[in-house]
Design goal:
By secondary structure, the chain is mainly beta. The chain has one domain. The chain contains 3 helices and 24 strands. Strands 1, 2, 5, 6, 7, 8, 9, 10, 11, 12, 13 and 14 form a 12-stranded antiparallel sheet that branches. Strands 3, 4, 15, 16, 17, 18, 19, 20, 21, 22, 23 and 24 form a 12-stranded antiparallel sheet that branches. The two termini are 27 Å apart.
Amino acid sequence: MVEISVLLGKLEAELESANIYGRGVSKGPRKLLAKSLASVSKLSKYLPRVSKRTNFAKLDEFFFSRAALLPGGKEYWFIDVVSTEGDKTQLVLTFGSSYFKTRVNGQDAQGGKVAAVGWFHSGKKKVFVEKSLFLQSGKGVLKTDAFTLRGAYPSYELVAGKGTAIKFSKPERGVPYEALAASAGTLGFGMFNLYLDASGTIGGKKFVGSAYVQKVVVVAPFIPWNWVRLVFADRSALDFFAVRLDKHDVGRNVLYLATYRFASGRTVKLGDCRLRRLAKDRWLLEGKGVAAYMKTYAFKPFVIKGRGEFHYDEYMVECTDFAFKGVRKQTGIGLIEDAYGLML
């Protein structure tokens, strides 16, 4: 994986350049951006050390604890659960908070509260939580009035209302987790990703599939990005992530990561990929030796307001055609994030 500290340094340089020359950052929030960048200290001063990858107790401590956020800091958890049985069942839950006063779809995300948005598709779309909630955190547990996530590496369980209870476990093959912590200049980043098997019930229906579980603490503004994650029936996965300075600046990525991970865990980096939105909410991701054609089957928008305004749209997609180095696959299910705006 590309060294995160290098990417953060590049992002900081691009943001400073945008602030000076006005590239990609609208005039209104430009002064706020400069003030925020000047006031933020290095993330490493308060983030738990998660770089020792064999220390699972520390990883769980990071995952289940609340960070003491600095100016510009944001903390959030993200869960995406997808079926590997050939159907379109998928669940997405996001909850988090910010140092600055922030509202997500009208819900507060500051202090002891988190803004939580959870939705799933199991035959039809259902939003099961969209509230500002108090989050209780303790050893091996995150709990609100709407959901509870508990466990210890590598076994966890999510219970989210009547009919939804999912158990996560270490996969027999593949990479089970990634842990990263880095800082560069005024920006900082800490992340714990889990790649787990999942089984249980979603909306009262039995479910078997794969889960992507993430905790992130970041000191940096939100700027436009696209993220694609597709999981196939054999549990191989395609990941694409690109950050830009402007929603329409598709040819000028600040940060770029793209990989295809085989079911065995072997990971191949993909270069020169581009995501295009086609008519009727269809999508095409293509690059050298790789192409994925996707259709949207459910959609959930987010509007984040505070020091700036940021739009974050989630598209549940079905990959109907995927080719990688001459090998073709179908029945992929996943998520596309289309994010744009500026949020300090």
